[in-house]
Specification:
29 strands; four-stranded antiparallel beta sheet; mainly beta; about 425 residues; five-stranded antiparallel beta sheet; 5 helices; about 5% helix; about 40% strand
Length: about 425
């Protein structure tokens, strides 16, 4: 039995795994009594490691105090229906969110939650709310994808303004403190216009991430056509306002095994390396066909634009062999990353893997290019089969101290000793 860390938690699980030790801080189901799809889909761990947020199907926002195991919930405003996962500010004081316009055709605004006061404010109110069907508007804003700048505290988002003259697309920002419980919302300021590079109207913007130095924003684009050359990964210089197309979507569609046809994969999430030289890109199955080999994590080099797959499935002759059970009881599916997290302060990646059936999660750590540190096993833990059903591509982790790194996987909050990660 290995020695656990000194971190005090509600329920501790010691893993005997390759000379390392980890703690299971919480099983959200044990604490909340909920294991619904919305909890698994919307759960977010605060950067301070102290709180987990999620929204339920009845438009209620819940916060779980990790140390105390106590949950507080309150209803969201009537105007904010079917929200996407909220995004935590770097200091853990605020949450930013918006509605899911692409799935439910409801007018989205940018909302900010003051955690201390439990207030929920509409920062971009255009006097339009609810569904679009059967309604006409002279002018309205579609405000989406709120993203905090961890360095400046700005809240960045994308705005498409529709009118009889057509649509615009701009990257906007709200300065720190411009939409809090003690201040009326300020007018957001435009960072740059994207209408020239994305002229076809509002595209699906899957995810955005600010570089560690706060100077650049990376984001995913998918227009109405999967063959649109504008699809893929873009980066905007936040000072100059200049956009750059780093990689097309086609760069992520090649098979990760020689025996496999090209997959219907698409970049879903992006996370910066600590030195800002590259991006970890989380690739998923856009058609939800259930093809395991379409899931992968790639490294995208900013200087060259080259894309490198981090997980290869070439060790199998064909699909049948990939899905066959080996002597240890595993299939090739165990190589497929379900989640990836780029460690702060180092160019290392933690990946989470489950096999068919999803009763065990295995955690690996490896160095990202150009360091090429070989993957090694951190440990494994038993999980509920339904917990890993919905992949969480959003990279979430935090440092609780100089000794512990914490992440959220499915419904589990897990910690690692930094000396075992090579920190």
């Amino acid at each position: 039995m290995l020695k656990t860390s000194l971190f005090v938690c509600l329920c501790v699980l010691v893993w005997a795994a390759t000379g390392s030790s980890q703690d299971l801080l919480l099983d959200l189901f044990d604490v909340t009594g909920r294991q619904d799809r919305e909890l698994l889909r919307t759960a977010q761990l605060s950067p301070t490691g102290t709180t987990v947020s999620w929204t339920s199907g009845d438009d209620v926002l819940c916060l779980l105090d990790v140390a105390a195991g106590e949950t507080s919930c309150w209803p969201l405003p009537e105007q904010m229906a079917v929200p996407l996962p909220f995004r935590w500010s770097e200091d853990g004081r605020f949450l930013a969110g918006t509605e899911d316009v692409f799935r439910f055709l409801r007018d989205p605004d940018i909302w900010v939650v003051d955690v201390a006061s439990e207030s929920v404010l509409d920062c971009t109110d255009d006097d339009v709310w609810g569904g679009y069907l059967g309604k006409e508007f002279a002018v309205h804003w579609i405000d989406i994808l709120p993203t905090w700048n961890p360095v400046t505290g700005d809240l960045l988002f994308f705005r498409s303004e529709s009118s009889d003259e057509g649509s615009t697309l701009d990257l906007m920002r709200l300065p720190p403190g411009s939409c809090t419980s003690v201040s009326a919302p300020d007018e957001p300021m435009a960072v740059t216009s994207l209408a020239d590079i994305l002229p076809g109207g509002l595209p699906f913007l899957g995810h955005a991430s600010v570089s560690p130095d706060g100077s650049s924003l990376a984001f995913v684009v998918l227009t109405n056509s999967r063959d649109d050359p504008a699809n893929g990964i873009w980066v905007v210089d936040l000072k100059e306002g200049t956009p750059r197309h780093l990689a097309s979507a086609d760069a992520f569609r090649r098979p990760a095994a020689e025996w496999h046809d090209p997959v219907d994969a698409f970049p879903m999430q992006v996370a910066w390396t600590s030195d800002g030289s590259g991006l970890a890109v989380f690739v998923g199955d856009l058609s939800y066909s259930g093809d395991w080999t379409s899931q992968n994590i790639c490294y995208l080099d900013l200087a060259s634009g080259s894309v490198e797959y981090l997980f290869s499935y070439d060790g199998f002759e064909n699909r049948d062999e990939f899905l066959a059970t080996d002597a240890d009881g595993h299939t090739g599916v165990s190589l497929v990353p379900r989640q990836g997290i780029v460690l702060r302060g180092s160019n290392r990646l933690i990946s989470v893997h489950t096999d068919v059936g999803g009763t065990e999660a295995t955690f690996l750590v490896q160095g990202l290019p150009p360091y090429q540190e070989a993957p090694r096993v951190l440990g494994s833990m038993a999980i509920d089969p339904g917990a890993a059903r919905y992949p969480q591509y959003d990279p979430q982790l935090t440092h609780l101290s100089d000794l512990v790194t914490t992440l959220l996987f499915a419904r589990y909050v897990v910690s690692f000793a930094d000396n075992e990660l090579g920190q």
